[in-house]
Fold:
Amino acid sequence: MIEIRNLTKKYGNHIAVDDISLDIKPGKVYGFLGPNGAGKSTTMNIITGYLAPTSGEVKIDGHDIYKEPEEAKACIGYLPEIPPLYVDMKVEEYLEFVAELKKVSKDNIKKEVERVINLTRINDVSSRIINNLSKGYRQRVGMAQAIIGSPKIIILDEPTVGLDPNQIKEVRDLIKSLAGDHTVILSSHILSEISETCSHVFIINKGKIIANNSIETLSNYFNSKQVLEIIAKGDLNKCKEVIEKIEDIESVTVENGSEEGTVNITVTAHYSKDVREDVSLALSSEKISIFEMKEDTKSLEDVFLQLTNEEGEE
Structure:
């Protein structure tokens, strides 16, 4: 659906986008994740044709964004970080105007506007002037204009910025509902945003793509070993001895706990086998009581921090 080859954008000596190449398949929700200033918005603006790259190529559904701009842009619905609203117009009037710009047939404009109004839940403000709307409603009107005409690709740059928790949930649900019929690209520096709405993530840092995979694959890669954190009551040396006898255990560290008679145990094992039951049975057989056992897994936040820190160190 989108092909990006060797994309670079320079501002003087500053490289905002550094030789990025990507293939974006149809029907999925993709997340562009990165710290502020990483190059997310610049990449989005180049994909939509708003900015010209210094070098490289972008094809949208087979159309070069600069050689065939009309054909390429007809495939895209775009919501920038600041929604492109004409604030002196009424909501319905503005959306009808956008539908005309997107060449929706005159016979279908009313029906299409009604569809996106219902989809983004702005029915109760459709007759109001945009300038009088709250931040949340303006953001939803921006979403509505991006969706008008059912473009194949919907690009959303920080779509929930400034929204309250209820509005954020509604926008996330809407984004997930668009998958399948549309390819959605979501840019954000909010980790929970990406993990809750996207199936695939690109992590960008200092203009470079440093990760390109499904969230599940990334998490599994960084969770290649099972780590258990245990609080138990028993002799420190005995606890270590019992656990070290279990097959697939790589390492055991034991230290005195905060409560008298307790020990804190950290167990590392091969991820190919879940050792929680084996550990529990082994300790119980020696009459060692387990007060708490939890698996320490890396979240998307942990993955993001590790990758961006590694990139910074390099």
Summary: The mean pLDDT is 87. The first strand starts at residue 2 and ends at 11. Residues 231 and 264 are 5 Å apart (CA to CA). The first helix runs from residue 40 to 47.
